[in-house]
Amino acid sequence: MQGLDSISHLIRQSGKTIDVPHMSRNLYSILQQEVDLGGQALERESADMAVTLFQSALQKLTVDQPFYDHLVHNLLLSYKLLIEQLLKKGDTSTALDFLRAALRLEIRGDMAEDSTFLHKFAGEFQSLGIAFFQNNLNEASLLCCRKAISVYPSPGSYINLTNSLAATGQRARLSDFTTEITPEQLGRHLFIACVPKSASTFLKNLLLNMTGYRDLFTVYAAGQSEHEIYLPTLRESAHLDTVTQQHCRASDANVHLMQAFRIRPVVLVRNIFDSVMSLLDFYNKGAFQTSYFRADWPHLDEETKIDLLIENVIPWYFQFVASWDLAEKQKRLEVHWLSYEDLIADKPSSVLKVLEFYGLGASRRGVEQRIGEIESEERKIRFNKGVTGRGLSGLQNRQKEQVSRLARYYPSTDFGRIGL
Predict the structure, then answer these.
(1) Residue ranges of the alpha helices (H) in 90-214?
(2) What is the value of pTM for the model shown?
(3) In angstroms, rounded to a whole number, what is the distance separating the alpha carbons of residues 22 and 8?
């Protein structure tokens, strides 16, 4: 069977007569026989016999003996086949019993530093997790994912982890993503999840100025890419105090990372009609270069450009609001909502509420002083002077109706936050 480790094969590879110097020839002979019979049982798909034989062989070894980890791997293969057979028969209870036994298996011997071997061992648990997931046993699937990650975290592990966490509704743990830092060692992470052109750069720069925290953009790439949180960057900066500003929805992956790294987001929104007009200005000034319609934008008339934005970009705004609204309602994350309109109407009060949300204090006078400093650096903030109401006058009635109709797809979401 593919992936099976046999004692005789290991001996032939080593070129030695015997790999276990303190083992008697009689014991070696018994071990070899049990391993060979176990391998034959697996080939016949006689999983229960394979489990018995490999368990017996393993009991004859200590962790410091060269064959130990290979027999652990063989036993896992046997458990895996047996569990899959039991699931196929609908015997869930017994399958879960054997899963508990499989989860206790550990690589503790010579192969504990062999990444290729560990990757293979973890892969068996990933396969088991998929089998349980396909049988709607999501709690068991999550256990398998976490075991695989603890053995050897690979990129594919996190796909299955996200699916299992979403299916069970459980919160992610820091240990799901890293063991190199403890929860007590985590830094403070101020995170602004925002729609474009909502004064988010102003707010971020102000928070950076007031806290002295590090500016952190946790994405793999910007431009045409969704601003999903990028695990390697987040993991690398987990111990730091940071401020982040990203255009990201409350995807399951983002929510899980926020749960694990104790990130509580400020969700910054803006009147949806004003957003259309602000986007039009933004794209006309060159931002279209990062869009998928960059080849044609310069040749479109203004009305067509607005229609394009309403049909292709504005739906994302509705998804943004609906996703964070649901994450909050389901108590998956604690969220602080802030609107562009409230921010520009009373910047000091809005900022003080943000600081309070993060357990940080400041005087109103100090905040006002810092705001003055930040606003003087116009090159950095890209603030459009706080103009509101442009959408109602700049959009045609049919365009305003087209925007409003998008809300019908999310009847449980209150879009009053964005002017509907």
Answers:
(1) 92-103, 115-134, 138-151, 155-168, 200-211
(2) 0.89
(3) 17
Considering the domain boundaries, does residue 2 fall inside one? no
Q: What is the mean pLDDT of the chain?
A: 91
Where is average pLDDT lowest: 60-69, 288-297, 352-361?
A: 60-69
**What are the residues facing 190 on neighbouring strands?**
243, 264
- Each residue's pLDDT tens digit, 158-167: 999 999 999 9
Q: Is residue 104 domain-resident? A: yes
Q: Is there a single domain that holds both residue 100 and residue 189? A: no
Find all residues with CB under 8 Å of 309, minimum gap 6, and list them.
276, 279, 280, 283
Residues 202 and 257 in one domain: yes
| Residue 1 counted as domain residue | no
Q: How far apart are CA 418 and CA 278, in angstroms?
A: 14
Q: Note whether 145 and 286 are same-domain residues.
A: no
Is 188:240 a contact under the CB 8 Å cutoff?
no
Q: Name the token pair of 380.
A: 């950095």
CATH code (residue 399): 3.40.50.300
Q: Does 327 lie in the same domain as 214? A: yes
pLDDT in tens, 368-408: 998 988 887 765 555 555 567 888 889 999 999 999 999 99
Let me know: does 141 contact 98? Beta carbons within 8 Å: no
Q: Are 239 and 152 in contact (CB under 8 A)?
A: no
